[in-house]
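Incident review: delayed structure delivery

Summary: a single-chain prediction request sat in the queue longer than the usual turnaround. Root cause was a stuck worker, restarted by the on-call engineer. No data loss occurred. The affected request and its eventual output are reproduced below so the record is complete for anyone auditing the incident later.

Affected input:
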Amino acid sequence: MGDYHFVYKDLEGASTQWDDIQRKLGNLPAKPPAFKPPPFTPASDHQPKDQTWLDSKTSEELEDLEDDLDDDRFLQEYRKKRLAEMQEAAKVLRFGSVIPISGSDFIREVSQAPSDVWVVVVLYKEGIPECGLLLQSIEELAVRYPATKFVKIISTDCIPNYPDRNVPTLLVYNNGAVKGNYVGLHSFGRRCTPEGVALVLCQSDPVLNDGHNRNEHSREAVIEGVRKRFLEKVVADHEEGDDEYSSD
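Output delivered after worker restart:
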């Protein structure tokens, strides 16, 4: 009958009484230390809540974070600040074009406009060249100054029997009151340009606003910008004239 040996394998790191005796006699090497895994640390997806981390969040994400972290005062205060900045930016981009209105829209769109919004109303008639010239300048100013509201309305829809000889007419409103009244294209100089119209509108009031300045600062910024563009145009026209002269 064969000689069979059965070797019992215990759990890794465990030791039998026989193994302990053999180690004492020096027949087996010292027992290796039992495996001990490192302490468990749950993974965290949250980055430190510094300014950069919060700046990357949208308003919806900030609302979700506030729901999860109601006790985080810093986050709540920062969210309020961000929402205020977003609302202010939305105000700047509120307009940016000339809005056509009818007579029934006038009170809502012009007279009842917010007190911090200046409204420029163009009374015009289709087919009259002077109206087209003024509207070209107004459309450019509407893009340049998106915090100012520009509307246009057919003259007789606004004022019944308004004489065609008086168009185009520009009305300026603020806080429900008329602040300016400019009748005819000649009100804006010999050549109707966006720069000339802007200077007339901002003679005494901060009518035009790009959204980055307020009140008197906006008026000063408009005047300074108009002067700069005027000088650039004069220089460009002069250089163009020199090029034509040299080519002859």
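Verification: Residues 195 and 226 are 5 Å apart (CA to CA).
Action items: add queue-age alerting; document worker restart procedure.
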